[in-house]
From TrEMBL:
<dbReference type="InterPro" id="IPR000408">
    <property type="entry name" value="Reg_chr_condens"/>
</dbReference>
<keyword id="KW-0344">Guanine-nucleotide releasing factor</keyword>
<feature type="repeat" description="RCC1">
    <location>
        <begin position="133"/>
        <end position="192"/>
    </location>
</feature>
<dbReference type="InterPro" id="IPR058923">
    <property type="entry name" value="RCC1-like_dom"/>
</dbReference>
<keyword id="KW-0677">Repeat</keyword>
<feature type="repeat" description="RCC1">
    <location>
        <begin position="193"/>
        <end position="249"/>
    </location>
</feature>
<feature type="repeat" description="RCC1">
    <location>
        <begin position="383"/>
        <end position="435"/>
    </location>
</feature>
<feature type="repeat" description="RCC1">
    <location>
        <begin position="311"/>
        <end position="382"/>
    </location>
</feature>
<dbReference type="GO" id="GO:0005085">
    <property type="term" value="F:guanyl-nucleotide exchange factor activity"/>
</dbReference>
<feature type="repeat" description="RCC1">
    <location>
        <begin position="250"/>
        <end position="310"/>
    </location>
</feature>
<feature type="domain" description="RCC1-like">
    <location>
        <begin position="1"/>
        <end position="431"/>
    </location>
</feature>
<dbReference type="InterPro" id="IPR009091">
    <property type="entry name" value="RCC1/BLIP-II"/>
</dbReference>
<dbReference type="Pfam" id="PF25390">
    <property type="entry name" value="WD40_RLD"/>
</dbReference>
<protein>
    <recommendedName>
        <fullName>RCC1-like domain-containing protein</fullName>
    </recommendedName>
</protein>
<dbReference type="InterPro" id="IPR051553">
    <property type="entry name" value="Ran_GTPase-activating"/>
</dbReference>
<dbReference type="GO" id="GO:0005737">
    <property type="term" value="C:cytoplasm"/>
</dbReference>
Length: 441
């Protein structure tokens, strides 16, 4: 595991001495030490997945164990970090720094033999799906006015909890297949193509109406539909305050905050800035993409990325910090600004509402995408890692002189190290890299 950006709250899991901003990727000696010990599974087993949250990090190993590190004020780590006995010193307790700045297993999941295959992290929320399609969530949701809590009964959930009950008919067991986390909301997709949302919903991110006097009800999973109930979802994605789903036909649906066209459903006016119910993103249909289809979606605060089966990336939303990976003279940007400048008092709008193809310097297909607040990262089939956007605390991994990168830039070349996964958080970025060097040399 490698990390860049802000490490001052233990997000890297590299210990209490990492308290600065790092503009280039730092290698985790702790992870390498655990690999040598066999702590992640069989001999030489490593990490399988990573999820960077607001100020915390989750990752899974080859045994399916979830590990966590970073801030735990709102129970984001899925484990207790206060008054934990020191196993090596009877009568003593482990320090908060020891329990948060280094990764520790989410022990309650281990104890119930929960083998995790998917994880998601929001600002102060964590979620996991097992190989059996079971779902667990922990932490707390926050709304516009502060902590919204976790449910009617409690303000936060310290340990992973099963809060979603699915239908279990003989021979027809419904399971969770996909999850995505925004800042303070979750989207869940099941084997039956059903969608459930929970969390804060003031910006329409839940795809259902939440009354102000009953907004705590948003923390209970409820089913939503993609136009009609016959539409079945197969994958989900989330930004800070907006959400997405892909249905079985390959159509993309977006909803939530749309102040800068980040849902991709179109932009009408500054007064029409929330998409309350899922709407189809017409420009990303298979017909519009020439038979290609979207397979993965990632989003930041006000922008979104869409990855297709052919390895192409499309982007829409805010662009004033290089978020879209498109240069200022890109035809889609110049045409949009010229056409709608009158609506913005003669000033150029700082967003692009139509998903537009992001050009890459080579033809290596992209296989995974991730978004931070204003930054992005992508992994290619050849093991390259690209970063772009705005990274004021080093989360781009490009070095001290580059706070804004307007076009995808290679930060891992795919020669000595091969990138296999990347995740962008609130102020930090994590990457899993495989050593491609000849170990006998």
């Amino acid at each position: 595991m490698f990390a860049c950006g802000a490490a001052n709250f233990g997000q890297f899991g590299m210990g209490p001495d990492m308290v600065a901003d790092y503009s280039k990727f730092k290698r985790s000696e702790w992870v390498e030490g655990q690999i040598k010990k066999g702590a992640f599974g069989a001999e030489s087993a490593g990490l399988e997945s990573i999820a960077a949250g607001g100020l915390h990090t989750l990752f899974t190993d080859e045994k399916g164990t979830v590990w966590s590190c970073g801030v735990n004020d709102d129970a984001a780590l899925g484990r207790v970090t206060n008054n934990v006995p020191d196993p090596n010193n009877e009568g003593s307790f482990l320090s908060i720094d020891e329990l948060t700045s280094w990764p520790w297993p989410v022990q309650s999941l281990v104890d119930e033999n929960f083998r995790t295959v998917r994880i998601a992290a929001g600002d102060s929320i964590g979620a996991a799906v097992s190989d059996k399609g079971e779902f667990r969530v922990w932490g707390t949701f926050r709304g516009n006015e502060g902590a919204l809590g976790f449910s009617n009964e409690q303000d936060k959930q310290d340990l992973p909890a099963p809060i979603l009950t699915l239908s279990h008919k003989p021979g027809d067991y419904e399971k969770v297949t996909s999850i995505a986390a925004g800042n303070n909301h979750l989207i869940i997709c099941t084997t039956h193509g059903n969608l459930y949302t929970l969390g804060a919903g003031e910006k329409g991110q839940l795809g259902r109406k939440i009354l102000e006097r009953r907004k705590i009800h948003g923390t209970h999973p409820e089913k939503i539909s993609l136009g009609t109930r016959s539409r079945k979802a197969v994958e989900v994605g989330a930004g800070s305050y907006h959400s997405f789903a892909i249905d079985e036909n390959g159509d993309v649906w977006g909803w939530g905050l749309n102040t800068m066209g980040q849902t991709g459903t179109g932009w009408l006016s500054a007064d029409d800035d929330i998409v309350l119910l899922p709407q189809k993103v017409d420009s990303l249909s298979q017909d519009s993409l020439g038979g290609d289809r979207v397979t993965q979606i990632a989003a930041g605060e006000h922008h979104s990325l869409f990855l297709t089966r052919a390895g192409k990336v499309y982007a829409c939303g805010r662009l004033d910090g290089g978020q879209l990976g498109l240069k200022d003279d890109h035809p889609a940007i110049t045409e949009w600004k010229a056409e709608y400048a009158e609506l913005f008092n003669g000033e150029s709008p700082q967003f692009l509402p139509t998903p537009t193809l992001v050009p890459y310097p080579d033809g290596d297909p992209v296989v995974q995408i991730s978004c931070g607040i204003h930054n992005n990262a992508a992994v290619t089939s050849g093991g390259k890692l690209y970063c772009w956007g705005q990274g004021l605390q080093g989360e781009l991994g490009c070095g001290d002189d580059d706070d804004v990168v307007t076009a995808p830039r290679v930060v891992v070349k795919g020669d000595k190290w091969l990138a296999s996964a990347v995740s962008c958080g609130g102020q930090h970025t994590l990457a899993l890299l495989k050593d491609n060097r000849d170990q006998s040399a």
